Amino acid sequence: MKNMESSKEPNEIKLQPAAMAIWDSKYRLKSAVGVPVDQNLEDTWRRVALTLASVEKPEIRSYWEQEFLNALRQGAIPGGRIISNAGAGAHKPATSTINCTVSGTVGDSMVEILDMVREAGLTLKAGCGIGYEFSTLRPRGAYVAGAGSSTSGPLSFMDIFDSMCKTVSSAGGRRGAQMATFDISHPDVLDFIRAKREDGRLRQFNLSCLITTPFIEAVKGNADWDLVFPANPSELQDPNVQIVYRHWPVTTPPYRLNAQGEVACRVYRRLPARRLWDLIMSSTYDYAEPGFILIDKVNEMNNNWFCEEIRATNPCGEQPLPPHGACLLGSINLTCFVQRPFTREADFDWPRFRSVVRVFTRMLDNVVEIHGLPLAPQAAEIARKRRHGMGFMGLGSAIIMLNMTYGDAASVRFTEQVAREMAIVGWETGVELAQEKGSAPLLEELFTIDEILLARRPRLREDGFRLGDQVPGRVLLANYSHYLARFPAELRQRIADLGCRFTHHTSIAPTGTIALSLGNNCSNGIEPSFSHKYSRNVIVAGRKTKEKVDVLSYELLVYRALINPLADPFAEDERARLPANFMDASAIAPEQHVEIQAAAQKWIDSSISKTINVPTDFPFDRFKEIYLQAYDSGLKGCTTFRFNPEAFQGVLVKNQDLANTTYRFTLENGETVELRGDEQVEYDGEIHTAANLYDALKEGYYGKL
Fold first, then answer.
1. More confident residue, 18 or 214
2. Cα 69 to the chain's mean position, in Å?
């Protein structure tokens, strides 16, 4: 059934109430006493455009303010910290426009650990998410000479960071976001994998294992795997201690190195690699964690391969960063470029997309000048490399509006083309900006060729470079970055000759609340729509549990407005049925999720935050294959989510899952009450869904949101 009388365009569709509520609570600027400064969404855009144009030369500021405003209106959406905090100094001066940071290296001493707790607290207070690697800390039970006793291990120190995060409220009503990474070789890795099985523990963290190529090969070959940690001087002299040399993030004394820069490590335990693999898989299957970061691939593909070692990411994993690294984010809403959606003439406006990418690249680069980071090492790092992460959102929605199905061959080609156009236009703009404003300082520095660089890039020797030669960073990036190798030769030569304004340009973030609010619930990041009619659990100031908000997908709103006002994903009436390509995340095969991610990753120089949703009854053996496919496809990481009501409630929840789940509450008198997850219950003066109340009480955050 078609509504031929409708003349609405997609961009005329009003924001859903849930979208407006998120804008009001998270992105709308308000005074210190809560009075709105932004009277409407247009005021928000004008504030951001004016602030980001303010760093331009006076004679061109008004021009770029208008260009930035036009780009914002056309779907160039900066990261949440930029929208919330750009131009907000008069009302919240201690906030940052930066989404992503990584801690300095967490040193293996009490003083160094507490120093990082302090730095992390200041970073979270400024509104930035932060990641840390904790496998730099000695395993539980290791002897600490200074204290004359054994250490309690990395997990106990992670509890300190977790508690700190609970007490530090991030700016703009945003809860603190943290990522903890952990090497797959560390002796305490089994404890790390199982950490979240304890109710309420480490709930301020996302957890990810740093998976190495040798470990995956050991799994495939059914070999044993050594759990190791750098040996202290006395262990090196002990004939009963087995020593192996491994790559390790800390190489300073008292650790001993070999000629290849590997660290002498004590073997604490040996176990079958597949036993460790199955533990990771079962934990991920039941609890959606730990995540899976292929750290060797991250470093191999890093543009700054010649000067930094990456061991951690931001909280959602799309930004692998070095110690004190920081990055700002932005996403282009792809639905804004779909013309004549759902018709035979539906197509994507590539010229306008490229134009918006050019303007958005300049806009994001300007954010570096107003970063507001609280720590001097963070400021120095972002000024030296000028990293930003431009990505997209609404991919799944746009695919449906273009009459494709998420995961089919056409959608995979479309995904790669979007990522390719964004990357090439962005780097072309970066060269132009370098000529106008100067290159990223790192790219003008000289780097001395040594054995490590020659080992990482043997082609340097083939091209005539020798030990002791000095080479500009722009040459090492343009000619020896594995990522840039697929770019046009002419563009790479321009980067080598002229430099670039930044060292990294692209990253695909999850865009959760931005997609829901400013994108009117277009699909998150690179994802398909979770469902076309579902509930979202959101944090609302003053409420004691999360609030369940019902929303419709953006493509369903457009389809109703332009084609069929009766359309409903659960309708049995043939007149209201949706086209077959209106699939949601759980209806798409995991292999198709991986193919989409791999298509984009070719042109993304940082990483991609992507979650592969699988049904609750998805077979475990097939589930494990997803991760090996991710490795074989050259991805930098992989995350899955399987709805498991016994473990927790997700942010996005299908109503049918709630209706089919029973929650049991025990009252003070010992009586038990059973409720469906979607039933409403009055408790402590508020109305809650049974599922959200159960989750809040179980996890210990009731009344603390």
1. 214
2. 26
Residues 6+ apart with CB under 8 A from 116: 103, 104, 106, 107, 132
CB 603 within 8 A of CB 419: yes
pTM of the model: 0.91
E strand segments, 421-496: 446-448, 470-472
Instruction: Say whether the peptide bond before residue 290 is cis (omega within 30 degrees of 0).
Output: yes
Instruction: Provide the 8-state DSSP code for 206.
Output: E
Residue 701 has pLDDT above 90, yes or no: no
Going from the N-terminus, what domains does the chain have, and what CATH number goes with each?
27-93+329-375+400-438 (no CATH), 100-313 (3.20.70.20), 442-498 (no CATH), 662-705 (no CATH)
The rounded distance, in Å, linking the Cα atoms of 186 and 150 is 17
Rounded distance, CA 423 to CA 434, Å? 16
3-class SS of residue 354: helix
Token pair belonging to 653: 């929840």
Q: How confident is the model at residue 4 (pLDDT cuts 50, 70, 90)?
A: very low
pLDDT of residue 650: 61
Cα–Cα–Cα angle for 411, 618, 549, nearest 5°?
A: 70
Strands (E), 85-237: 100-102, 129-133, 143-144, 149-150, 178-183, 205-211, 224-230
For residue 500 the two structure tokens come to 């670039």
Residues 321-363: tens digit of each pLDDT: 999 999 999 999 999 999 999 999 999 999 999 999 999 999 9
Which of the 8 DSSP states describes residue 99?
Answer: -
Six-digit token pair at 332? 């282009």
Better-predicted residue by pLDDT, 151 or 270? 270
168-171, long-range: CB < 8 A, 24+ apart: 168/121, 168/124, 168/125, 169/125, 170/124, 170/125, 170/126, 170/127, 170/128, 171/84, 171/85, 171/92, 171/94, 171/95, 171/96, 171/125, 171/126, 171/127
Alpha-carbon distance 622 to 385, whole Å? 41
In 3-state terms the chain splits into helix, strand, coil percentages (rounded to 5) of: 40, 20, 40
CB-hemisphere CA count at 13 Å for 135? 28
Instruction: Give me the pLDDT at residue 604, please.
Output: 98
CA distance 327 to 302: 14
Residue 1 is predicted with a pLDDT of 34
Per-residue pLDDT at 681: 86
* DSSP 8-state secondary structure symbol assigned to residue 330: E
* Number of CB atoms found within 10 A of residue 664's CB: 10
Q: What's the pLDDT at 173?
A: 47
What pLDDT, on a 0 to 100 scale, did the predictor assign at position 692? 81
- The angle at the Cα of 434, spanning 428 to 437, to the nearest 5 degrees, equals 135
Q: Which of 53, 64, 99 is nearest to 387 (CA)?
A: 99
Distance CA 532, CA 512 (A): 15
**Under 8 Å CB-to-CB from 55, ≥6 apart: which residues?**
366, 369, 370
Distance CA 476, CA 456 (A): 12
Residue 426, number of CB atoms within 10 A of its CB: 25
Per-residue tokens: 278: 């199955």
Residue 557 CA, chain-centre distance (Å), reads 27
Q: Which helix (H) or strand (E) holds 347?
A: strand 347-348
